[in-house]
Amino acid sequence: MSDIIDTSKFKAFTLPPGDGQKVCIGGGAGFIGSHIAKRLKENGYKVVVVDWKKNEFMEDDEFCDEFIMGDLRKLEVAVKCCKGCSQVYNLAADMGGMGFIVSNESVLSFNNTAISMNMLEAARRNKVKDFFYSSSACVYNEAKQEDPNNPGLIETDAWPARPQDMYGLEKLYSEEMALAYGRDFDINIRIARFHNIYGPRGTWKGGREKAPAAFCRKAATSTKEFEMWGDGKQTRSFTFIDDCVEGVLRLMFSQCKIPINLGSTEMVDMIEFARIAMSFEKKTFPIKHIDGPMGVRGRNSNNILIMKELQWTPSIKIEDGLRKTYFWIKGEIDKSEAAGEKTEFNKSEIVQQVDDSLMELGTSE
């Protein structure tokens, strides 16, 4: 078969030394961005991070050389941050899990489109050579994700376009805008469609956390039952943060000019996922199914293209990655409880619609 890949020919990747080369990471104080920034800084790159919030779990000097508190929805901020950079990584986005996305589609669409436009234009004005855009598996046509036994989404499944929500549509539009900038202005565009990235040192409470963090938090704090949105039969693949960082850097230094999946192909349903999270401390609580947003019925990554292009594929198993995440979150819970926080950590919440970020624009300082 033409799709059989000889993995014995896969090669180890060595990140080229930075030697003080300046790079900008938009959204670099976020979960994925800070891990990428940290890896680049450790390899000698001069890392400039711009974000509208500080990182909760790392000090600035752990992951960047310069931190700029700024709003990338403003073009002048993006242009300033990209000055003198040879590479730009755009991971900046207003986002969260399903509990946030379902009630904030308009806000996400406005904010993220503005950020994506500005980062590309800032890169062009500063004659940046390489540009990475973090896309999402949310771009895929919903009709391809109705079966829980999803065989794996191939990159061409994004067209004709019919994402489930505006978050996915904005990501797809931003992919096309980035590719157009690459064609028109000779910028090396690299795009990865992330499949449920998770791991330690990321958001784990408050409504913006994603399923892996929420499941670990519930597993650690539940005493009688495990609360879950929906019937639990929806399926996903999950990608550990170390694999994500490796994939992004391999892609940035590759010749791949088209969007690729960056995700594991190990797919589980949510009931099994909950069982895995509970297993780390030998818990076996019954699952209580309640109403809540579930997303598509089945989503998995097809990795034929990434294996052909990068000679690599994510390899960290769910049980291994989730174990690390679980015990990190348990430690954070202990800190919160010691500080007197009374939140019900065994439940998830849907974040109500908020427009505060929109109202910050267009007003006098």
Provide a quick synopsis of the model.
The protein is α/β, with parallel strands linked by helices and 365 residues long.
Which keywords apply here?
single chain, seven-stranded parallel sheet, two-stranded parallel ribbon, 365 residues, 13 strands, globular, alpha/beta
Ends: how far apart?
Answer: 62 Å
Q: Beta-sheet strand percentage?
A: 5-15%
Instruction: Give unreliable regions as ranges.
Output: none
Radius of gyration: 20 Å
Mean pLDDT: 94
Number of helices: 12
Helicity level, as a percent range? 25-40%
Task: Spell out the helices and strands N to C.
Answer: EHEHEHEHHEHEEHEEEHEEHEHHH
Structure write-up:
By secondary structure, the chain is α/β, with parallel strands linked by helices. Helices cover 36% and strands 15% of the residues. It has twelve helices and 13 strands. It has helices at residues 31-42, 60-63, 75-81, 98-101, 105-125, 166-185, 211-221, 241-252, 270-279, 304-310, 318-338, 356-359; strands spanning 22-26, 46-51, 66-69, 87-90, 130-136, 188-194, 197-198, 226-229, 235-237, 239-240, 260-262, 267-269, 287-290. Strands 3-2-1-4-5-6-11 form a seven-stranded parallel beta sheet, sandwiched between helices. Strand 1 (22-26), helix 1 (31-42) and strand 2 form a beta-alpha-beta unit. Helix 3 (75-81) crosses helix 5 and helix 5 packs parallel to helix 6 (166-185). The longest helix has 21 residues, at 105-125. The protein is globular and about 60 Å long. The N and C termini lie far apart (62 Å).
